[in-house]
Amino acid sequence: MVRARGLGVLIVATLFAFACGSSGGGGSTSKGEIDIASDLPTSGADASSGLPTQYGAQFAVTQKGTVDGFTLKFVPFDDSVNGVHNPTKGAQNVQQMISNTKILGMVGPFNSGVAAAEIPVANQAPLAMISPSNTNECLTLVFPYCQSYAGYTAAALRPTGKNNYFRIAANDTHQGPAMADFAYDTLGVKVIAVWDDQEPFGLGVANNFATEFQKKGGTVVARQGFDTSSKPDFHSWLNRAKAAGATAIYAGATSATYGCIPRAESQGIFDPSTYYLGPDGIGDAQCISDAGATMGNDHMYASQGVADANSNPSAASTIAAYKAAHPNPSDTAAYTYAAYDCAAILIDSIDRAIKANNGNMPTRQAVIDQIAQTNNFPGLTGTYTLNSTGDPTTPALQIQQYKSGAWTTIKNLSVTS
Amino acid sequence: MAAMVQRLRGSVLTSPTSSAVNLVGLLVVAIAVVAALQRIYQSGPTYFFQTLGFGMAQGAIFALVALGYTMVYGIIELINFAHGDVFTLGAFFSLAVMPLFGLTAGKAPSTALILPLIGLFVVTMLFCALVNVAIERVAYRPLRHAPRLAPLITAIGMSAFLEGVMFIWRGPYNLAYPDFLPEQQISLGGGVTIAAKAVMVIVIAIVLMIGLTLFVGRSKLGKAMRATAQDRDAAQLMGIDINRTISATFFIGAALAGAGGIIYGLYYNSVAAFDGFQYGLIAFTAAVFGGIGNIPGAALGGFAIGIIAAISDGYFSVSWTQIMIFGILIFVLVFRPTGLLGMRVPEK
Predict the structure, then answer these.
(1) Looking at the predicted structure, is the pLDDT value of residue B277 above 90?
(2) Which of A12-21, A103-112, B330-339 bottoms out in mean pLDDT, i.e. has the lowest?
(3) Is B289 exposed, middle or buried (0-12, 13-18, 19+ CB in 10 A)?
(4) Do A267 and B179 lie within an 8 Å CB cutoff?
C-alpha cells in the first residue's frame, strides 16, 4: 500500500516535471507524447482473433494522431506464450505499462482469464483498462457463484476498492442466453449437448447457455467439462451425446481450447446438418480449419459480444478507411471495430481529462474518472454509455453464421436491462 | 475367483492392516466394475461396440507409440522422451509430403487412394526412423556409459528440440489434416454398428504390430535385439554388433511412431506441434502397464488404456477418465509390479 502510494507520487512528480518542461517549448509544437497501450494475444493460435483486434485499436490511435496538442502513440503488447494467451504474461505486460508513465490506458485484454490476472495489477497503479471482448460476468458483477467457478470476485480483483476496468462487450449473462434463445426459437433445437473447456470464460458461457435453454423448455444432455490442457479425444462423448438424443452441440470454448475439434470428430457420428453452436471464441478462421472440410459448413453459429459495425450507416466511412489500410480479409475479425471503439473511448476520455486539467497531462486516475463518465459515445459498433462498475448500459450482440467462407452476421440483438 | 484373490493377496500382503486396506481397494474396484457392467447392459450392444471402437482406435495409436518406448527401454533402459515428438513429426512430415503422392485435401475416400497412402506410410516411417537413429547417435550413444540421469536429460532435451523445430516450422496452430478414410458405419449384424474409420485405424495398427512381433521373434536381427536386451556383454561376446542392433531398435520403434503419426492425423484430422508430448506420456504409461520391455505387453497396455478411457468417457464422465486410468494402473501394478505381461529388461 505504502509502496503503491510512493509510486503514485513518483508518477505525478514525473508528469508534473514533464508537463512543465514541455509547456515552455512554445504553443504550436507538441506538448509531449501520450501512449495508448494494447494487450492482446497476437502470436500463435490466438493471433487469428488477437491481431485483427490490435489493428482496430491501432487504427483509431493513428487516425486521431494527436489530442489537445499531445502526440498519440500506440504501444502494443502480446500476452501469448507458446502461441496461447497467458494470464501471467498479461500481468507482466501491465507491470511494464505501469512503469512507462506516458501510458495513460490500455485496450484489452482479449481473454477474460487474462483480465482476471491483470485487473488487480492495473488497479493499484491505477491504470485504465478497456476491453473490446472480455465477457465473463464476474469481472464486473457480483454473483454468488463467482468465487466457486471463476475463482475470483469483482471486489477481490480491485484491491483499492475503486474501479479501473471497463468493457464494451456484452457479458456472458447475455451471450450464453442470446444463443440459447436463438437455438430454441429460431433453429428449433429442443435437445442439445453442452461441453466446456473448464476455463472461466468457457465454463461461464456454457452454464449460462444451459440455464437459459432449460428455462425455455429445452433439454441439456451430456453436460461435460473437458481438460483442454492437451487435445482431448471427443469421440466417445459425442457418441454419448448422440445416444442421449442431442440434435445440436454447444461448445463453451474458444479455438485455442479446441472449440471446433469436436465438430470434426463428430463426422460419422452426427449428420453434417447437425447444428454446432458456440460463443465468440469459436467465431474465427481457426475454428473453420479445425472443423474440417465436411463439417465446417453453414450449420455452425457463433455469438459475438458486440454488434456488427457494418449495420451502422455512420460507421461506413471509417470501415472503408480501415479496409483500405488493411486490405487482407483476415485483418478484420469480430472485435476489430470494437477495439477501435475502445481506443476511441479512451482517447475521448483523455481529451476530457486534459481539458479538465487546463490543457496539461492528466493523471491516470483522472482518465479513469472520465471513462466512467462516458455517455452516449457514438462508436462504430454502437452508442456506449459506461456505468461505474465498467459495463455498457445497453450492450449489443450479434449471431453469426458460417456462410460461404466467412462468419456472416445474421442477427443483431440489443439488450436492455 | 475367491481363490485367485486369496492367492494374489497372499503374494503381496503380510500385515493385517494392509490386508484390510487392500480389501477395501478390491471392494471399490468391484463396485466400479458392477456399475460399469450395469450401464453397459442398459445402453445396449450397438452403443457398446461403438464405444469399444473409439476406444480401440485411440488405443491402437497409443499402442503404436508405446511399442517404441518399450523396445528402447527393453534394450538400453532409457526412457526416450523424444519418442512422442517423433510421433508428431510423423504427422507433420506426412502432411508436408502428401501432395507428392497426389493426396490433396478434399479427395474423396476411394480404393484409388490405397497405393498413394501406402507410399506415404513408407516414406514417413523411413523419415521418422532415420531421425530417431540420428537422435540416438547424437544424444544417447555418447552417453551409453554415463550415469543414468545424463541420457534421461538429453532425451528431454531432444523432445524440446523437436517440438521447437515443429513450432518454428508450422506455428502452434492446429493444422488441418485431410480426411482420406471413409465415414460409413459398418454393420456387425443385429443392428450393431461400428465406425469404419475406427476399424481401419485398428486394422492398420494391428497389421504393423503383428509384423513387428514376427520380425523380432523370427528374424536374425530380431534375435540379436532380444539377445542384446537380455545381456549386452554376452551378446557382444557372441559377435553381435551392439551399436547396429541398438540403432535398429530405434529405427523400428520410430517407424512405428511415424505410422502412428499418420494414423493420428487421418483419424483426428488435426495435429499441433505439442500433441506428441501428452501422447508420449500416455504411451509410456501404457508400456509400463503392459510390462516395460515387453512388446505384446505394450500393445495390450495401449489398447487397455484406450478402451478404459472410451468406456469412462462414454458411460460415465470425461472428468473421471484420468482417475479411472490411473486407478486401474495403480491397482494392476500393486498386484503385478512388472505389469500385465511382465517386464523384460536386461538382467544384471
Answers:
(1) no
(2) A12-21
(3) buried
(4) yes
Any B CB within 8 A of A294 CB: yes
- What 3 state SS string does chain A have? CHHHHHHHHHHHHHHHHHHHHHHCCCCCCCCEEEEEEEEECCCHHHHHHHHHHHHHHHHHHHHHCEECCEEEEEEEEECEECCEECHHHHHHHHHHHHHCCCEEEEECCCCHHHHHHHHHHHHHCCCEEEECCCCCHHHCCCCCCHHHHHCCCCCCCCCCCCCCEEECCCCHHHHHHHHHHHHHHHCCCCEEEEEECCCHHHHHHHHHHHHHHHHHCCEEEEEEECCCCCCCCCHHHHHHHHHCCCCEEEEECCHHHCCCHHHHHCECCECCCCEEEECHHHCCHHHHHHHHHHHCCCCEEEEECCCCHHHCHHHHHHHHHHHHHCCCHHHCCCCHHHHHHHHHHHHHHHHHHHHHCCCCCCCHHHHHHHHHCCCCEECCCCEECECCCCCECCCEEEEEEEECCEEEEEEEEECCC
Supply angle C-alpha B116, B118, B124, rounded to 5. Answer: 100
Of A168, A129, A172, A136, whose CA–CA distance to A154 is shortest? A136
Provide, as residue numbers in chain A, all residues whose Cβ is less than 8 Å from the Cβ of B195: 268-269
Residue of chain B nearest A267, judged by CA positions: B183
* pLDDT tens figures, A236-272: 999 999 999 999 999 999 988 999 999 999 988 999 9
Residue of chain A whose Cα is closest to the Cα of B182 = A268
A331-359 confidence digits (pLDDT tens) = 998 899 999 999 999 999 999 999 999 99
| Nearest CB to A239; choose among B54, B172, B183 | B54
Is the minimum CB–CB distance between B62 and chain A shorter than 8 Å?
Answer: no
